[in-house]
Specification:
Protein name: 60S ribosomal protein L18a-like protein
Number of strands: 0
Transmembrane segments: 41-59, 79-103
Helix content: 40-55%
Strand content: under 5%
Number of helices: 4
Keywords: Membrane, Transmembrane, Transmembrane helix
Organism: Castanea mollissima
Largest sheet: none
Length: 110
Amino acid sequence: MDQRLSTDVVDHKNGAYAQIKDVESPELGMFDKPLPCFGCGIGWFSLLLGLACPLLWYYATFLYFRKYYQRDPRERDGLAANAVAALICTIAVIIAGVVILIINLATNPH
């Protein structure tokens, strides 16, 4: 054990506290800081705001395909949910467009 690192409560209050990392798992303390966007992460925040502005789903899908989650693996689920939401939105827009086109062609034959 490294004697330079202290886990004593008194040292922690004095600001002399240092995190002890596990040799076998160096990522152990890597994700201790909270996620951005009020702690829920960019992915989930974009999913919620995408209900008001669906373009955010496409932005988060772009981040997902650019592997933004490699910076913080906790972002992966939220970004993947945005990819699914963007796919569903795209399919719904295409179906609505086809239905409107068919209705217009049926009521206004040229």
